[in-house]
Amino acid sequence: MFFSCVQLFSQEERKIYKQMIVPFYDLILQKYGYRDSLLNMVAIPAEYESAFAYCEDRALVKKNGLFGYLNKAGKIQIPLIYQEARSFANGLAAVKLEKWGYIDVDGNTAIAMLFDEAKSFQKTEKGLVAFVLSDGKWGLVDSLGTFPIGFPFEYDEYQSPSIAEDLICAKKNGVWGYFSLSGKEQIKCAYDVALPFQENIAAVQKDGKWGFINKKGKIIIPMLYGIGENEFPIFHDELLLVTRNGKYGFIDKNGKIVVPFVYDYAENFNKGKAFVRVGNESLFIDTTGKEILF
Fold first, then answer.
1. Among 71, 25, 69, which Cα is nearest to 47's?
2. What per-residue confidence (pLDDT) applies to 293?
3. Cα(114)–Cα(118) distance, integer angstroms
4. What's the sign of the alpha-carbon dihedral 102, 158, 195, 240?
5. Which residues share a beta bridge with 212?
6. CA–CA separation, 24 and 16 (whole Å)
7. Which domains does the chain have, with CATH numbers?
């Protein structure tokens, strides 16, 4: 049997667990199953259209177009009856039967199927909460099935609201901003696009240009930059690939230009080097902008 398996666990996690059951794809059967990654042998036969990593001792699988969950023995613990579903998180999983709701690890309905969409539960300083969509508005539901802030946020076809570092990133009155977990506006809604905070800074976009703000809403990197072929601005090796006036360069988290805007094309840094091009000349540079010779 030939198969390829997506690596889902770090080396540190492997040291913790004696046995790892991970998804694999059987190239002959064109189905997913699970294998014991330590013994390197099939643990659960390949018979599923989709198979996801075990979360809280349950694995989300899809068969005949419907979703359900396996237990660690590979037996169906929760029947494959759902049109859509998400993996378990914090004891609950979002599932869809015409409408979205939540079930517990035994398959019991924990929160009724009432929503147009439902995200996974996450831990916050206010306890467990998840985003749910109803009548075109996003709100929060808690693990008791109540709605602590109602449904104040607007639907956006390109981006859902999110929580990071106990701040809600969401859209209201046509623009994006940041809110406390109590629903109070913390950073004024003023952006065409806003991304969740990470390490106390967040990327924001206005009029097609990206910059960064801190948790006080202060601009720490001005909204001056494009991001090339990247979908979102993400730092690699502590540097961010940006464009200005049609040229590529790199800045750090303070907005300092580390590698000047002299390149006609550039790719993100990876392990200290980045591919760049000037005219017809292609080369690799290090994080100081110096050419790397091989």
1. 25
2. 81
3. 9
4. positive
5. 203, 221
6. 21
7. 154-225 (2.40.10), 233-294 (2.40.10)
Question: What DSSP letter does each residue of 54-100 carry, written as one string?
Answer: -BTTBEEEEETTEEEEE-TTS-EEEEEEESEE---BTTBEEEEESEE
What stretch of H or E contains 11? helix 11-16
pLDDT of residue 4: 37
Q: What is the mean pLDDT of each run of 10 residues along the chain (294 residues)?
A: 39 52 96 92 96 97 98 96 98 98 98 98 96 98 97 97 98 98 97 97 97 97 97 96 98 96 98 96 96 83
Contacts of 52 (CB under 8 A, 6+ apart): 23, 59, 60, 61, 87
Q: What is the bridge-based pairing of β-strands 167-172 and 99-103? A: unpaired
Strand 66-70 and strand 122-124: pairing? unpaired
Q: What is d(CA 206, CA 189) in angstroms, rounded to the nearest whole number?
A: 11
pTM of the model: 0.86
CA angle, corner 157, sides to 266 and 61, nearest 5? Answer: 90
pLDDT at 16: 44
User: H or E element: which one contains 241?
Assistant: strand 240-244
- How many angstroms separate the CA atoms of 272 and 268, rounded? 10
Determine the Cα–Cα distance for residues 228 and 243; give it in Å rounded to an integer.
6
Residue with tokens 């998400």: 86
On whether the CB atoms of residues 70 and 59 are closer than 8 A, the answer is yes
Identity of the residue numbered 122: Q
Q: What is the CA radius of gyration of the chain?
A: 23
Q: Residue 32's closest CA among 56, 4, 66?
A: 4
- Contact 83/70 with Cβ under 8 angstroms? no
